[in-house]
């Protein structure tokens, strides 16, 4: 038994090993490529989610900036000094709480030099008797919050002087000196009872210094700031509510935490994230560092099973190919052994001329029976190999019926891919069987009309009627070997349709009667075949498109070549390599065919 197995493997032709090795390499390559593609796709999705987080924060801050500049515009439109009631009317018109979620309010900070402090306080105490600046500081200027709406929730901030604390003070001066909106470093708002991180957003306000004796810069036209206070947690809740989000993130400013979801208490937090990224942006004069990590929800929604399904399916197909080649090798070994035995017998029988004739007839009969047995063996082998394929197909259908409601779109794609691979292997077995029989079957001559027969063949192949067909037949009735000629024409027509890149087009058939043969052409308007590939398309299992893009066994043109070579027919491919291909071949007259 071991010797037989060894001889079977040793009897493999190098082409068998090449096919198996190439198939295995293609399987591993497809697995690696799909794995890389899945990884890149998942990473790209994470990159998009991370960039979207930053973009949403930036867009929201730009919207808040517009509200501040609207406040500056409102101050400019007033014909007199804006009062507390005037500011309340403006703030109510903005509808801050519904149109700007996450904002704590919007207010006015007046700039005061020491000589204007008394007149400013007297002006404010006309409407707010207990108005006062706080806390005390040593700076030679004052930046008090004069108005803030809604005032009820921000009462603790009224009269707060920005000059008392370095983050508030430095950002206020930057806004004044640059004329641009700016934000403070991390601070704790006086109106925040929970003492969580926050910041202030300033927009500078300028005007006519000659007409203002209550506030403003004596040497310039700077009058103050329109500002908004923000509690970071409340801001992020208004901008990016953490509900079914695929990423968690944190924001740092100068090493201090402004906001963080990177902890166990955060929704969908993943302590071993698939991806992590840091993005640093300049946010109105401050450098904010975003640290973005994929969440557990991202992990659950981006589990990639496709590469492993491809690998498993490829290994199954490679195993089946190995079984096919083992069976074919054993059959070939039996045939060769039998042929050797017949040859030896014939040599012995030549010495005995009287019995040689009878023995020769007997051996010829045995050889015909052996060919029949070989055909039967090939058929049975093909049938036996199809049985496990049908079992796999049935198993896949049962799995689909049981789990259809729980399938994701990717799982559906994988099941369709598995069924397609099974169908492709069945077609490959049928094609291999047809290829093995070429030249060994006895064909009969038949009288028929060439144009009518070709039109019928095309109608069978063009099931969805997507392709137009022009038949130019100048041959008409002929008596020839119908089976091999039909096989050539069917494969050429099918090849022109399957490899068309548009799914529809025009196929032409031309036939002329020459002096000693018929000249036949099949022309399509699909993609052309470059010159360097025009010989390769006749090779076994050779296709110019990936197998996933075209349902082809890779044996069609190989069968055409084998038949035409069998009857010594000249053939050629004509194509400019861009669009259109013409396959032209000669077919012998009846007399020439009967001599072969």
Task: Write a concise keyword list for the protein shown above.
single chain; 596 residues; alpha+beta; Beta-Lactamase; Heat Shock Protein 90
CATH class of the largest domain, anyone? Alpha Beta
Please list the strands of the largest sheet in the order they lie side by side.
2-1-5-4-3
Reported for the largest beta sheet, the result is: 5 strands, antiparallel
Helix content: 40-55%
Residue fraction in strands: 15-25%
Class of secondary structure makeup: alpha+beta
How would you state the average pLDDT, rounded? 81
Task: Please tell me what the overall shape is.
Answer: elongated
Assembly state here?
single chain
Any low-confidence stretches, pLDDT <50, length ≥5?
A: 1-9
Number of strands: 16
Q: What's the number of structural domains?
A: 3
* SS field, number of helical segments: 15
Our Rg estimate from Cα atoms comes to: 43 Å
CATH T-level fold name of the largest domain: Beta-Lactamase
**By CATH's scheme, which homologous superfamily of the largest domain applies?**
CHASE domain
Looking at the overall shape, the CATH architecture of the largest domain is 2-Layer Sandwich
Distance between the termini: 43 Å
How is this structure best described in words?
The protein is of the alpha+beta class and 596 residues long. The chain has three domains: 22-303, Beta-Lactamase (2-Layer Sandwich); 305-437, Topoisomerase I, Chain A, domain 4, CATH 1.10.132; 445-595, Heat Shock Protein 90 (2-Layer Sandwich). The protein has 15 helices and 16 strands. It has helices at residues 2-10, 14-77, 84-94, 96-99, 117-124, 166-178, 232-239, 296-301, 306-350, 353-403, 409-437, 450-461, 482-498, 556-566, 590-595; strands at 106-110, 145-149, 182-183, 198-206, 222-231, 247-253, 256-260, 276-283, 286-294, 445-449, 467-473, 477-481, 505-513, 517-527, 571-574, 579-588. A five-stranded antiparallel beta sheet has the order 2-1-5-4-3, sandwiched between helices. Strands 11-13-14-16-15 form a five-stranded mixed beta sheet. A four-stranded antiparallel beta sheet has the order 7-6-9-8. A hairpin with a 4-residue loop joins strand 15 (571-574) and strand 16. The longest helix has 64 residues, at 14-77. It starts with a helix and ends with a helix.
């Amino acid at each position: 038994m071991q010797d037989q197995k060894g001889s079977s493997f040793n009897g493999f032709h190098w082409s068998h090993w090449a096919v198996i090795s190439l198939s295995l390499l293609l399987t591993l390559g497809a697995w690696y490529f799909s794995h890389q593609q899945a990884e890149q796709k998942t990473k790209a999705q994470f990159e998009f989610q991370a960039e979207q987080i930053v973009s949403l924060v930036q867009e929201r801050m730009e919207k808040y900036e517009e509200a501040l500049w609207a406040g500056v515009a409102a101050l400019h439109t007033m014909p007199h000094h804006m009062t507390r009631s005037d500011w309340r009317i403006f703030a109510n018109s903005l509808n801050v709480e519904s149109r700007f979620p996450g904002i704590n309010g919007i207010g006015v900070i007046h700039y005061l030099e020491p000589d204007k402090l008394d007149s400013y306080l007297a002006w404010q105490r006309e409407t707010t008797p207990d108005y006062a600046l706080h806390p005390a500081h040593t700076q030679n200027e004052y930046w008090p919050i004069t108005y803030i709406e809604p005032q009820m929730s921000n009462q603790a901030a009224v009269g707060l002087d920005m000059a008392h604390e370095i983050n508030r003070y430095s950002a206020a001066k930057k806004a004044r000196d640059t004329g641009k909106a700016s934000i403070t470093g991390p601070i704790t708002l006086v109106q925040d009872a929970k003492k969580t991180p926050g910041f202030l957003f300033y927009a500078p306000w300028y005007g006519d210094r000659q007409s203002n004796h209550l506030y403003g810069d004596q040497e310039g036209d700077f009058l103050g700031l329109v500002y908004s206070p923000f509690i970071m947690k409340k801001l992020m809740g208004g901008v990016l509510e953490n509900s079914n989000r695929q990423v968690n993130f944190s924001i740092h400013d100068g090493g201090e935490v402004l906001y963080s979801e990177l902890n166990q208490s955060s929704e969908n937090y993943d302590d071993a994230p698939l991806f992590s990224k840091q993005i640093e942006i300049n946010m109105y004069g401050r450098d904010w560092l975003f640290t973005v990590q994929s969440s557990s929800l991202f992990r659950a929604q981006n589990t990639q099973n496709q590469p492993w399904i491809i690998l498993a399916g490829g290994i199954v197909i490679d195993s089946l190919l190995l079984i096919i080649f083992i069976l074919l090798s054993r059959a070939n070994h039996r045939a060769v052994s039998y042929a050797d035995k017949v040859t030896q017998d014939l040599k012995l029988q030549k010495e005995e001329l009287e019995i040689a004739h009878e023995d020769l007839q007997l051996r010829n009969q045995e050889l015909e029976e052996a060919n029949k047995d070989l055909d039967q063996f090939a058929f049975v082998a093909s049938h036996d190999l199809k049985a496990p394929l049908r079992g796999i197909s049935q198993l896949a259908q049962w799995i689909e019926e049981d789990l259809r409601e729980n399938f994701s779109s990717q799982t559906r794609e994988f099941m369709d891919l598995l069924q397609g691979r099974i169908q492709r292997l069945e077609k490959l077995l049928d094609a291999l069987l047809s290829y093995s029989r070429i030249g060994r079957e006895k064909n009969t001559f038949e009288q028929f009309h060439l144009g009518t027969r070709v039109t019928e063949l095309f109608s069978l192949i063009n099931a969805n009627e997507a392709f137009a067909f022009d038949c130019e037949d100048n041959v008409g009735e002929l008596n020839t070997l119908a089976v091999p000629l039909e096989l050539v024409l069917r494969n050429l027509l099918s090849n022109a349709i399957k490899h068309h890149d548009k799914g529809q087009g025009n196929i032409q058939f031309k036939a002329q009667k020459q002096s000693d043969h018929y000249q036949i052409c099949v022309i399509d308007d699909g993609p052309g075949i470059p010159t360097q590939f025009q010989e390769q398309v006749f090779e076994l299992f050779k296709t110019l498109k990936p197998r996933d893009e075209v349902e082809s066994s890779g044996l069609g043109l190989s069968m055409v070549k084998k038949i035409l070579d069998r009857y010594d027919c000249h053939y050629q491919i004509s194509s400019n390599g861009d669009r259109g291909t013409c396959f032209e071949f000669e077919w012998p007259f009846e007399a020439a065919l009967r001599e072969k």
